[in-house]
Amino acid sequence: MLYQSGYRHIINHLKYQEEIKQTEDSPPTIFFVWNYLEWGGVQIYFLGLMRSVVQKYRVKVILPNGSDGKILQYLEENNIEYDFFGGKIDFSKTETVWRRIKRRLNDFQANLSLAAHLSKYDLRDSIVQIDVAPWAGFLLLFYLTLKTNVFVTFHTALPQISIGKQILWKIKFATLTAFRRFHLAASNLDVKKSLRPFVSDSQYQQIEIVYSSVNIGEIEQALKENKQRGDIARRYDFPADKTWVCNVAQFIERKGCWVFLEAIATLQKQRSDLFFFWLGTAPLNEETSRKVERHNLNESFRFLSADEIGASRHDLLTLWKAADLFVLPSFQEGLPVALIEAMALGKACIASRVNAIPEAVKHLETGILVDAGDSAELASAIGKLADDKSLQKKLGENAQRLVLENFEEKVTGQTMLRLYESV
């Protein structure tokens, strides 16, 4: 018995030493984390970062149970590991005090569940890149910062808030940034400027801009695709003989969905040579579908969800490439991945004059800027650009050149990789 016990002890010790060696030899892990079901530009931005760091780090995504199958497919196509936690943040509108209380309790529980899930991993030599705002997920970020290096990249400028909230947010920022393991980054200049009131001068100077970017390989593959427009029109039941005007975004008010439909309704009364489509991430719910129907757009407008577009990103880019114009009438934005991808595809773009959009869209040089919420101005811009093929060509070529020279994924990925390696 003593011999057997000693033998087992030696074997277990050898196994333990082997596990330590494997841990020492394996690259550190970067966890990419978000706590909500909706997906879009942030996740595409994260995918670009993952592709840039995967040669030097192990990459793992942590996301909520019930996440959309399309984003899981994108992760699998890029050979990215992922794991689920229970709970999710509630982004639905609240109209009563009781509803706001319930939502905050739900959000607290979701973040608590996420913290518990991450605690199962050895975070000591890891990095957590997380899409959680310090004012909404302060306790979660505080907990994670005690464990490891945490990166938060801001994509949209901070909103105008009351003086009371400003004081509270400053306290939260000051607490988190007091830790050397808490790091801030911005995906555009506009959002960096909006952080200025909440951080010290030295911390502000340390905030790096890691721009939204495009995967040049994906873009080049789409541009080389020789599918005829007629074939694409038949696949999606689109009218091949009209000018195609598209949007790629979540179908939500912040993205200007109703302004877009109002502009279509205006143009529909004036002409019949335009066809509009919106490429979204998820199907419309019943309430939104009824609201769309009330605009009486008939055959002038179609909405396609990610599953209806096709099985891969290439299907999306191929359809997108076939469009004549790209329109993004948002009320609030960062520097949207969808916009710079449209520009990379050589599309003539019309976008709102808000936040970071003018960092890429220079009026009448690389696109057309309109005031957010002005459906009449948007309709006029669409009509004029649809009639001016030479301007379409000029704007599309200039936009494509700007993006390919300044927003390539490998370049922006190297910036983030340098930040990860500095900790």
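That was protein one. Protein two is written in the same sequence-then-structure order:
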Amino acid sequence: MRDTFPLFPQQASTIAARVDALYFYLIAVTIFFSLLIALSILYFAIKYRRRSESELPHGVEGSLKLEIAWSVIPLLITFSFFIWGASIFFAMNRPPGDAIEISVVAKQWMWKFQHADGQREINELHVPLGQAVKLTMASEDVIHSFYVPAFRMKRDVLPGKVATYWFEATRPGRYHLFCAEYCGTKHSGMIGWVEVMDPVDFQSWLAGGTGSESLASAGAKLFAQHACNTCHRPDSLARGPNLEGLFGKKVQLQDGRTIVADESYIRESIVMPNAKTVAGFQPIMPTFQGLISEEGLLQLVAYVKSLSKAAPSPEGVAPPLSKSRGQTPQGSAPASVQEPPRSEAKK
């Protein structure tokens, strides 16, 4: 009966059992207090019913102990909801450092995936068993929601923002992928599959791909195509912050705030460069809103992240221009408008 008519999806990720445990705890508390309140109403309605027309109710003294009990006990129970839920929330939003990174672009009405080595998929995602996978997601049009019931994961993907999520599959198999946010007339058709494979089989599947360039390599080409390296360079001619080692570090802004250079910050810096200007630099960077697709933005984010890793740059990656003491690079502004030496941030 359970196989033909399952009440709950399979538990196929490391977080699934923890989510279910909290869910059943909430149900148990709800059932307990619902029955307690219903039975108490029934009991007191019978016990203290009016037995005759002339009967007058007796005065009831208040009970300080009772009032404290029915205030403190529910407070402790609700605190248990918060602490348990917060622990799961933080676990869901802190991916391991060795997680495999996959780019996800949502659009009406499909899911487009690109692995770090360049392998592409549509409406089907292959992942290895027992390995953490981090998804970096963006939307090209409207709000979508990435939902895999067996993994107990659901993350809204909003246009103009980068969303990240991670999971680790614990059972091989093929699992449903849905868009859980109404996104238009063909919303019900925006479905797919997540294929969890043995690590050896997954590597064989990757090796049998089309040989597309990696995310970072594609981002490096965009970086050079738009002449970004004429400003973001590690020498005195830089008019923008040096991007090497930037990702994951704290950035000091002109208004005194300090933020972390994560995926959302890098994306915002490309499409709205003047929204958060880095201390020590002027807001001279042009916007690339509408000039680079969401897929291209994720590739640029992957490239900037690759500059912060100890490993050598991926093949095809063009690092920022090396130090130069002489000629002003093509496309740069005259020395009179150049900025002070670089800082560990962005424009």
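The two ends are 60 Å apart (CA to CA). Keep this in mind for the problem set.
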